[in-house]
Each structure stands twice: as C-alpha cells, then as structure tokens.
Specification:
This protein is of the alpha/beta class and 386 residues long. The chain has 14 helices and 13 strands. The structure holds 4'-deoxy-4'-aminopyridoxal-5'-phosphate and glutamine. This is Methionine aminotransferase.
Length: 386
C-alpha cells in the first residue's frame, strides 16, 4: 500500500534557517559571504597540534557524560577569574555540543507546557523553536535593531503568573549591544522579584569592544543561583565547526540539565575537549580576541563610510548592522538577496530575527573575515545601485 505521511509538524511555521539559506545563495552566486557568522580564518596551529596529539594518544572513546575533567576544571578556573563565581567542575560544569545544545537542553529543562518565557527580539533563531517544542510560549520584548538601552520597567510588564524564565544574550547577536552593569543589576532584581530562571547566552563573552567589560550573569551571586549559563568555544577559538560548548549552573539545576543532555548527545567529542582544556591554560588565547575583532569592525566601518548607511558601531560579537533606511525602501530580505546575486556580497536581513513581519531596513554583516575580504565587501557595497 502507498504510504501517505500524516506527519503533523511540530514546527509548522519554521523553514530552513536564514543562515543556511544565505550561505547557500552566496555560494551559488559566488558572492563574498558576510552572512552566516563564522570566521574565514583558521584556528591556531597550536590548537590543531593539540587535537592531533590527543587523537594520536588514544583519546578517542566516549568522554564522560558531563565532559572530560581537565576541560571542566579549566572552564571553572576561567569563570572564577573573570566573574568571581565558583562553579564546581564535578557538579556544575557540563560540556555540550555547542551552545546550541546547551540552550536547547536548558530551555527543555525549564519549560513545561503553557509556561511563558520572556525573549528579547531580535533574537537568535534557535531560542523560540526550543521553547515551542517544550509547549512553552515566547513572550517578546521587541527592540529596534539600533536600540540604545533596555527599558526594564517595560520588561516587567510582560511578566505574568505563567512566566518561568527570561532569556538574555550579551553581547547580543544580531545588534552588537552589550549589557551594562546596570542592566545586569536590573535583570537580577527582576528575576528575584518574580522568581524567574534566567537562561543566559554568553557565546560572545570574549568579543567586546571600546573598553567595555562583559558582565556575566555569573557575576552576581543572587542571579547566578538561578541562571543557566551557555557558552561556546566556536567563537572564541575560531572553531565554529567543532560545536564545542559548555553549560554552567548550580548543582541542582545542572542535575536536571544532565538528565536531558545524557539522552540527547550523551557526551561530546573527546580529543577536542582535551585540546581545548590545554589551550585554555594560556589566558592570552581568549583575552586578545576583542582587540583582534575591534580592528576588523573599524576597518569595515571605515570602508563603508560615505555610502549613506546609518551605523552604530557594534559593541560586541562579530556582527555589524548597517541601516539603509536613507538609501532605499526595498524590503530587507529582497535587498539581501539582490546584493548577493547582483553585487556579490551576502548579508543577513535583520527581519529574520523577529517573530512578526517587520522591516527595519537593516542588514547584518559578519566581520569575522580577512581584511581583504572586508575591504572587497565594502567596495562592492560602494558600487550598489539603490
Ligand atoms: N547563540 C548565539 C547568539 C549565537 O550567535 C550562536 C552562534 N552560532 C549560538 C548561540 C550557537 O553557538 P554554537 O555554534 O556553539 O552552537
Ligand atoms: N550564529 C551564527 C550566526 O548568527 C549562525 C549559526 C548557524 O548557522 N546556526 O550567523
């Protein structure tokens, strides 16, 4: 008998991610790919040698479910040095398959059917599907991509009896905004007043500009005690393809997190964990990253000067938004596609980060690229016929 699929989609409104679509379009049209966020340059040869060393020395079987101990210890040490918060490597540090897995498991751990989660948008694309797959309801605080500050009183008005958690991301993809000390205090107070969990996406913790400091949710004890903190080495070591991330939370929360993590992936790639553990012993390897990327941001911003974009320099991440509202009325998706096809430079339309159809006439450009790629991208943008 002919098989007819009666499969009921769990994500009926979701298609293939914008990052996949724009990277594919860039490839098809041989355009410079400033869309999906990944470095054009390779990770350090020292780090590559470490992976090689551990592969050759037989570290090729399952890692412990929570991750290899040297890496858990190295993360605990780094976090203590940077935030003052002690996470116990045995019970409070877990190695994950990228931050994506950490976020997915954290959301699944916290959210039950009917629960509401406060989400700031523009939002990274994996948050909302994860909330919905657990039967949760995202409640949006909608911000303009060029927003200056968060109105925490407005955030408070979104909280109901059903709110279980608030999801934050600093430095923020795609706006490049970063939390100030006052933001993190407001978040801590809000979470405490309303007894909420906090899911904190800090994957760009080491890419922050103009002398700002990353304010981690781990840095305030009352906040850390209710926070599911998600990090990634993909951004920090130019290794997005390794999908190596981590998760920090107090022991009781971690215990619940691990119940799900163990059945999603069980454990993650062993020799890479040992390699990153050893590489982390030298703080220069992550503390220099902000300067490296700030130069790239500045190079790109200078090279697009004079075109007529409205720009607000990115405060962190490796993304720069350019608003073309003074140049064209064209819809951002149509423009991003046209620039890729006709002018050979791919970007991400910022509307893709919103739940409703919006168009702020803004494109996101990834500047984790070689300088000549950035200059060429800017030159192509200089030639655009609007
Ligand atoms: N959160 C944000 C804000 C990101 O930009 C990314 C990057 N891809 C992730 C999470 C996922 O990180 P990973 O690649 O480690 O899964
Ligand atoms: N974080 C990357 C970005 O924002 C994309 C990661 C992915 O493709 N899933 O561009």
């Amino acid at each position: 008998m002919h098989f007819t699929s009666g499969l009921k989609s769990k994500l009926p409104h979701i298609g293939t991610t914008i990052f996949t679509r724009m990277s594919k379009l860039a490839e098809e049209h041989r355009a410079l790919n400033l869309s999906q966020g990944f470095p054009e340059f390779d990770c350090s040869p020292d780090l590559q040698r470490l992976v090689d060393k551990y592969i050759r020395s037989g570290k090729n079987q399952y890692a412990p479910m929570a991750g290899v101990m040297p890496l858990r210890e190295a993360i605990a040490k780094k976090t203590f040095e940077l935030t003052g918060r002690e996470y116990h490597p045995e019970t409070e540090v877990t190695i994950t398959s990228g931050a994506t897995e950490a976020l997915y498991v954290a959301i699944t751990t916290v959210v039950n059917p009917g629960d509401e989660v406060i989400v700031f948008e523009p939002a990274y694309d994996s948050y909302v599907p994860a909330i919905e797959l657990s039967g949760g309801i995202p409640v949006f605080v909608t911000l303009d991509p060029q927003y200056d500050s968060i109105d925490w009183q407005l955030v408070a008005t979104k909280i109901t009896k059903k709110t279980v958690a608030i999801l934050v991301n600093t430095p923020h993809n795609p706006t490049g905004n970063v939390f100030t000390a006052s933001d993190i205090q407001s978040l801590a107070k809000l979470a405490e007043d309303h007894n909420l969990y906090v899911i904190s996406d800090e994957v760009y913790e080491h890419i922050i500009f103009d002398g700002r400091a990353h304010v981690s949710a781990a840095s305030i004890p009352s906040l850390a005690s209710r926070t599911f903190l998600c990090g990634s080495f993909g951004k920090t070591f130019h290794t997005t393809g390794w999908k190596l991330g981590y998760f920090l939370a107090p022991a009781a929360l971690t215990a619940e997190f691990r119940k799900i993590h163990q059945f999603l992936v069980f454990s993650v790639v062993t020799p890479f964990q040992f390699a990153v553990a050893e590489y982390l012993s030298e703080p220069e390897h992550y503390l220099r990253l902000s300067d490296f990327y700030q130069q790239k941001r500045d190079l790109f911003l200078k090279a697009v000067e004079g075109i007529g974009f409205i720009t607000k320099p990115s405060g962190g991440t490796f993304f720069q938004n350019l608003s073309y509202q003074n140049l064209s009325d064209e819809n951002d998706v149509a423009l991003a596609e046209r620039l890729t096809r006709e002018f050979k430079v791919a970007s991400i339309p910022v509307s893709a980060f919103y739940s409703q159809t919006v168009d702020y006439k803004t494109l996101r450009f990834c500047f984790a690229k070689n300088d000549d790629t950035l200059l060429k991208g800017a030159e192509y943008l200089q030639g655009v016929i609007w």
